[in-house]
Design goal:
Blueprint (H helix, E strand, L loop, with lengths): L3 H9 L7 E5 L12 E2 L9 E2 L3 E4 L13 E9 L13 E5 L11 E4 L4 H4 L5 H5 L3 E4 L9 E2 L10 E3 L7 H9 L4 E5 L3 E7 L3 E2 L10 E2 L1 H13 L2 E8 L3 H13 L4 E5 L10 H8 E7 L2 E2 L3 E7 L5 E6 L3 H19 L9 E6 L3 E2 L5 E11 L2 E6 L8 H5 L3 E5 L5 E2 L4 E6 L8
Helix pairs in contact: 1-8, 5-8, 6-7
């Protein structure tokens, strides 16, 4: 058997970021930028008001207070999207809305709340717009309640670097600098193939000895969640002709990764190894992990070389193996370089045990109680108990050399999902 780290390192050597494609902004969400983005303008492009209030000259109101207000003559109103046609001269002010360009001559904005308009709030908005004078109740410094041109971005400056993961705020940055489309690394196409004579489709009635095909859907959903495009090939039966045909159909679909489930252990009917060996160069391993000991990896010969990852057939083993090996491969092809899930320290509410010389991924539920995280197992941990991982939001990873953890111990949990709410 080989270690988890050895298997993952060998597998990831065969993957690299895929070529770039140009997509619309919303399609770029959570994708990896494949070009540097240079701003084509100053942002904001002009000095503007950060508040609703009055644009003033700070020196005119240097002595203003509620006890001794300064009265200014109102010479106009400026809404966002419009430009003042005259200057703020000594002794004058302009009523201004948030985002409106600061008029020439003004260097500060006084909020409505700090003027007589805020104190005497009477009448309609139109009445306020017809004010001929306003009392300023607070002194301001130059620049108060304003936003300077270029304070966010400068024309010609780098604003987003190649390799950036485009979260929602970055999409806003791209729109701000006029990028309606952007170059990102293409999403990998991943073939999904389940194998076995015992499998039937999800909507088929069960005959004696048959089970429904859950692995295809679990793996396809995991590919989609990781950012890939699942190509579902259905079920390959346990014969060389059908399995070979399904593999070649996947290669004809121009995939970047091939995933199979089942047929990579030591069973008498596990012919997947024979067919994969005939269609490419394969390595078959036993990995020091539980669940998920049997694993295959290799490269298929198609129109282009396609890495193939053979996952175990037990449903929990397949999901955990996908998490440890396939998800990092997909993220690598997307251009991402961080694969580690976030972790939390939690108090374990029950004893945990481990088989010697294997890393155990124990399915747990993490909750926050009284400000602290606690973790409990999802129940029986057999590799065929699919509900045990469907309930889990984290994995307690027990090292190979650790066989027992006592209830009440502090443990590190690798989170799969965060709790939807915290008590």
């Amino acid at each position: 058997m080989i270690s988890v780290e050895e298997a993952r390192a060998y597998i990831l050597k065969h993957f690299h970021p895929l070529e770039a494609e140009r997509v619309d902004l919303l399609s770029a969400l959570d994708r990896v930028l494949a070009e540097d983005i240079i701003s084509d303008l100053d942002v904001p492009p002009f000095n503007n008001s950060a508040m609703d209030g009055y644009a003033v000259r700070a020196q005119d109101i240097a002595s203003a207070s509620r006890e001794k207000p300064v009265t200014l003559r109102v010479i106009g109103n400026i809404a966002a999207g419009y430009v003042a046609q005259n200057r703020v001269e000594p002794g004058t002010a302009m009523r201004i809305m948030t985002g409106a360009p600061l008029p020439e001559g003004a260097d500060a904005v006084v909020r409505f709340e700090e003027t007589s308009e805020g104190v005497d709030a009477k009448g309609t908005r139109e009445d306020a717009k017809r004010r001929e004078s306003v009392e300023i109740l607070k002194a301001m410094q130059r620049g108060d309640n304003t936003r300077a041109a270029g304070e966010d971005m400068r024309k010609g400056n780098l604003v987003l670097s190649r390799g950036t993961v485009l979260r929602a705020p970055a999409i806003g940055v791209l729109a701000t600098v006029g990028k309606k489309q952007v170059a990102v690394h293409r999403r990998p196409r991943v073939a999904i193939l389940a194998t076995g004579d015992e499998l039937v489709s999800a909507d088929e009635p069960l005959a004696p000895g048959k089970i429904r095909n859950s692995n295809e859907y679990s793996n396809a959903a995991a590919v989609l969640k990781a950012g890939g495009i699942p190509i579902q090939l259905g079920i390959a039966r346990d014969n060389i002709a059908d399995l070979t045909a399904k593999i070649r159909a996947g290669l004809d679909a121009d995939v970047d990764l091939f995933l199979t489930s089942a047929g990579v252990s030591v069973g008498d009917y596990d012919i997947v190894k024979d067919v994969l060996g005939a269609e490419g160069e394969m390595h078959f391993w036993q990995v020091k992990m539980k669940p998920g000991k049997p694993l295959a990896f290799g490269v298929l010969r198609g129109k282009k070389p396609v890495p193939i990852l053979g996952l175990p057939g037990n449903p929990v083993s397949s999901i955990v193996s996908f998490e440890i090996f396939a998800r990092p491969a997909i993220l690598t092809m997307l251009g991402k370089n961080k694969f580690t899930r976030p972790s939390v320290t939690a108090q374990l509410l029950e004893d945990a045990t481990n088989s010697a010389d294997r890393r155990n991924f124990i399915r747990v539920i993490v909750e926050k109680k009284n400000g602290e995280y606690v973790a409990r197992t999802t129940g029986e941990q057999g590799s065929g108990i699919l509900t045990s991982i469907s309930k889990a939001n984290g994995l307690l990873v027990m090292p190979e050399d650790l066989t027992f953890i006592r209830a009440g111990s502090e443990v590190e949990i690798q989170m799969l999902d965060w709790p939807e709410f915290e008590a």
